[in-house]
Specification:
Elements (H helix, E strand, L loop, with lengths): L16 H13 L8 H7 L6 H7 L2 H13 L10 H18 L2 H7 L6 H14 L6 H32 L4 H18 L3 H7 L12 H13 L4
Helix pairs in contact: 1-4, 4-7, 5-8, 5-11, 6-8, 8-11
């Protein structure tokens, strides 16, 4: 997949691997679950048969590999300012990308990051960690700790997005109204007083204590203990 692009037979369709990947990404972005089919993608591209796409991407798994690496290209690492700014930028840029493409988190969990964009990203992050002289496992562990936060947060976002679409509760207010009768019964029963006290506190969500950036900084504080 990564070493050459197959040359398709002559065809009237103005296709390319890059065009297919961009179209697939846009199609996945429009689906609450991020799931796409080759038939729908072919239709969007104006191609009569989905089999035509396989000449460019080899298989649906091959397309998923290309889509994942396309999104890895939206991550970035700050260079020449030390390991912490580098990993913080990795996390923040990754979270920005995942919010735009939540389906990426599910696909990224299911395949190794061996595409050219992913390898360039890891190489840049490892370069910033290299001066610390840490063991190889620790260097990669630092990167994967940050990416784990990105992908875990993205997967939670995807599942919530899918759930909201499935049950038709689009806003936080809709969800709160749906849960209110159940929470009232829990409070009335009195079996979980500390949870009930939290659930009835009007300020329980303000200010939000666990923003992505705040948790990222907590993780970086922890990783700082490894740097000596």
């Amino acid at each position: 997949m990564w070493f050459d692009e197959p040359v398709p037979p002559p065809t009237a369709e103005p296709l390319s691997r890059a065009r297919i990947v961009i179209a697939a990404t846009e199609l996945a972005d429009r689906q609450a679950s991020g799931e796409i089919t080759m038939r729908t993608l072919a239709s969007q591209l104006g191609v009569r048969s989905p089999m035509t796409l396989y000449r460019y991407v080899t298989s649906k798994d091959g397309l998923a590999d290309l889509m994942v690496d396309h999104i890895y290209g939206q991550f970035s690492v700050t260079r020449d300012q030390g390991w912490r700014p580098a990993l913080r930028e990795l996390g923040i840029s990754g979270w920005t990308a995942v919010q735009l493409h939540p389906w990426f988190a599910r696909l990224a969990f299911s395949r190794p990051p061996l595409g050219p964009n992913a390898l360039a990203l890891y190489d840049a992050a490892l370069a910033e960690l290299d001066p610390l002289g840490l063991p190889a496992a620790t260097r990669m562990g630092c990167i994967n700790t940050v990416l784990g936060h990105v992908l875990g947060s993205g997967l939670a976002l995807l599942e919530e997005q899918t759930m909201r679409a499935r049950i038709g509760l689009a806003t936080d207010e809709d969800l709160a109204m749906a849960a209110a009768p159940y929470l009232e019964r829990i409070t009335a029963a009195g079996n979980h007083p500390y949870f009930s006290r939290w659930a009835t506190d009007p300020d329980r969500h303000s200010p939000p204590p666990q923003t992505f950036a705040a948790v990222l900084d907590w993780l970086l504080d922890g990783l700082a203990t490894l740097t000596g």
